[in-house]
């Protein structure tokens, strides 16, 4: 038991500086977004309650979070105006989620058991959005979600988080305005390719 406690303490010390900066971003930007979008989320919840009944407004699913702790992910049962994502902002402020991180996986999801994945998934909060969510639309062969999550785990920080959030907003605006999505990603196409790939592949 003492060994487990020592390892947990060492892990917390090693991750503290970077994690604290990202947590400040989650709290400041997450709170601002929560306040700004709360009326739209409330109206969406009311519309769903009228149309489907109060019991069909929220979807609740178990997800694995920081340190392997299981929490309940709550989302509005609609994707209109991305209200399902915006409805998760209280969980960002509370600390179950981060604004940016790997996709929240269900307990027992085999992706969490891949070699090396178990450790970094326990070291990071799952995200409201993430590198995998903004890059998989690019169609590039190296943009595999598991590879993108791994890349994020190795390079995450406030600067990368802000770049991902900017790209997520651009994608959302393209969807809302009906503009065709570009098949070329705006983030660097070279920083997480599979070995052996080149621009002409």
Automatic annotation (TrEMBL):
Transmembrane stretches, start-end: 27-50
Annotated spans, Disordered: 175-201
Keyword rRNA-binding included in the entry's annotation: no
Keyword Cytoplasm on entry: no
Keywords of this entry: Membrane, Transferase, Transmembrane, Transmembrane helix
Coiled coil region boundaries: none
GO molecular function term, any single one: transferase activity
Residues making up the signal peptide according to the UniProt record: none
Bias type Basic and acidic residues, positions: 186-201
InterPro entries xrefs: Bact_transf
Full protein name: Sugar transferase
Species in which this protein is naturally found: Streptomyces microflavus (Streptomyces lipmanii)
């Amino acid at each position: 038991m003492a060994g487990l406690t020592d390892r947990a303490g060492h892990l917390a010390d090693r991750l503290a500086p970077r994690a604290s900066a990202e947590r400040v971003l989650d709290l400041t930007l997450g709170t601002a977004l929560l306040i700004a979008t709360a009326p739209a989320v409330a109206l969406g919840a009311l519309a769903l309650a009228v149309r489907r009944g109060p019991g069909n407004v929220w979807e609740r699913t178990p997800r694995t979070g920081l340190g392997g702790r299981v929490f309940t992910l709550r989302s509005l049962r609609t994707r209109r105006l991305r209200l399902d994502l915006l409805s998760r902002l209280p969980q960002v402020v509370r600390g179950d989620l981060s604004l940016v991180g790997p996709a929240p996986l269900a307990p027992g999801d085999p992706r969490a058991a891949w070699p090396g994945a178990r450790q970094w998934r326990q070291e990071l909060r799952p995200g409201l959005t993430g590198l995998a969510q903004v890059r998989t639309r690019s169609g590039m062969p190296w943009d595999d979600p598991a590879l993108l999550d791994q890349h994020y785990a190795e390079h995450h920080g406030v600067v990368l988080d802000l770049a991902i959030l900017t790209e997520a907003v651009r994608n959302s605006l393209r969807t809302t305005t009906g503009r065709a999505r570009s098949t070329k990603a705006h983030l660097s196409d070279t920083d997480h390719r599979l070995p052996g790939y080149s621009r002409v592949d």
